[in-house]
What does this fold into?
Amino acid sequence: MADLQEQISKACPDVQIDNSGQWPLLTVANATWHETATKLKEQLNFDQLMALVGVDWGDAIGVIYYFTNTQTGDIIHVKVVADDRDKPYIHTVSDLWAVANYQEREAYDFYGIIFVNHPDMRRFFLRNDWVGHPLRKDYDANPELNPIRLDDETNEDYTCRYVEKDGKVVKIDGKVFEDDEYVINVGPQHPSTHGVMRYRVSLDGEIVKKVDVVSGYIHRGIEKLCESLTYPQTLLYTERMDYMAAHINRHCLCLCIEKALGIEVPHRAELIRLMMDELMRLSSHLLSYGCLTMDQGATTAFFYGFRDRELIYDIFDRTCGARMSMSYSTIGGVVADVHPDFITDVRHACDVIEKNMKEYHQLFTGNVIARNRMIGVGLLSKEDAINYAITGPSGRASGCHCDVRKTHPYSLYDEFDFEEVTRTEGDSMARYMVRMDEMVQSIKILRQACDKLEQEGAQGEYIAKVPKMIKLPAGHWYQQVEASRGAFGVYIESDGDSKPFQKPMRMHFQSPCFNLIGVVDLTCRDNMIADLITITASIDFVIPDIDR
Amino acid sequence: MKHEDFKDNGYIEDLVAQLNGSGVNVVVGKADQLMNWSRSNSLWPFCFGTSCCAIEFMCLGAARYDMARFGAEVARNSPRQADYIMCQGTITYRMAPVLKRLYEQMAEPKYVIACGACTVSGGPFKNSYCVVKGIDEIIPVDVYLPGCPPRPEAMFYALMQLQRKIKVTKFFGGANRKEKLTYSPQGAKAE
It folds into this structure.
């Protein structure tokens, strides 16, 4: 830690470093931000931008960046404040970390922060005729300004760029597609886009030249809603973002709040949470198997995947009382102890799925059509995966060691014996195979967890003593977990308000799928248009998790 | 299921009274019955899954729940081939014109099931700046199905309610001529 601080102050002498939190906080002036960022990346090797959080502190607007060094696992965060609150300008870092491209567009949409030199400064979630920037504290929520518009939205063929010229920021118009390009529309409403995602695809014959992602068809404004709720109330939204990682997302938010409050969670509760997380991962990968196969025309395989998911749903149903959106984890533990048959059920599900894994491979993995459509298609190199902050199975298929359970162990993962599955090919087949192999690892974890839970006895302490009113001290916290599709992060900033029902000042969810959507253009380019669907299916994103 | 096992039988009884009151001759009446029986047992859904409910809908299509028992397994991706929209998931302001347009592209007679809390009222996202507070603000709804998300069993219940509704409509000169009626989005609730 001290080492890192020394290195930073040596490379960037004009930066203030605050070491009071979990990770060093750097405060950088906007004028020197791009220069400092270049040094951070090139000299100190912070090669991955984990999260980019726009924040409105009331008197100032700025951005907090979380960087990680994928080799050493060091994390730093950087605070950059815009000079003028009404017309906030911050220099872009999208030329250094490609993932910042969409992240900065999100911050522009939410806060109106203009990123100077960003190549494509359009809104990301909201319609282009939207009035105002909703997450600003001075946003006018008058419904007359933004009614439900039932007229069709015009296509955004024009984009713009802001550049610095003689100390002033000027706007330069640009185009998304050239006049002679042949552009077709895919989505927003088609099952094969796995939700409501829209692509505008420029074609040359059958070859994809460029994909323009139009997102926001399921943008529900969760981050803004969280600012009007108390901490226990915000928990429910985590399950409705990536509903295939409901337990895991909720676990993450609970961990973040517990970290802020300093609550020690009982061992049993953490064990139950971990088991639920792994069951969720199994369920998610089975769904992903089902959808990937169905997108290639193998409807039977879809039924096989869904047959086994029902076993996991039954376990959730018996213990949590719901098949989906379980609302099981809570601040300090879990809401109730497990069902008496829980361990038997989990063991049974593990046995059945392990046995059926062979069937999946026989049915699909060796199939000549599947192999031809997946091997060597949709390549993503390791460098790109790091640059675009691709985590989860898709990142590991490109050879990144990005499993948060191994790199920054949380919960009880360091007590368990399992392997991080990685491959090096980086194609659709590798992404598919990583998921299949991860299911085996999840089963391995679950079996160990069953033994541990059995040793704890039939009943035990499942929730810690938590104050009735959850009040966080002033400060900010970030927590990451390994969700089904990659690293899921929660950022909480509290102003330490002393009123009885404290509300978060800012709550940001760094979803893995948001980063995954960033590589659609990269992986689909120069492939056939028919492979667009299989590539996106193998990348496997959940749209509500992107849009939030 | 028997008639008395269903809840909310009032509106079905109203429809029956309406049907009996209008007076139709025997031939058209019998043809109506035949039409309605066949239509209610081959309802083709239009996939309109935006979020969580869509996953439960997929379970409905898969082996354990098997929607095919109700003749409703032929999920269509084109509105022109579908009989009803089962709207699963939140509808945002950006999606609203798309939903309306797809609804208008469907051929008459057409039906809408609002599946899940979000489509009924906005659900947990009711206070959001860009979520439609119930799809009945945009399109007429036949069956409201609460739940977040509803269980597959509940989805079947909604499907059966829709079947019952279809069975007591006047098809000739009624449901198949419905396009002449205009629907105003402001104020008016579902028919």
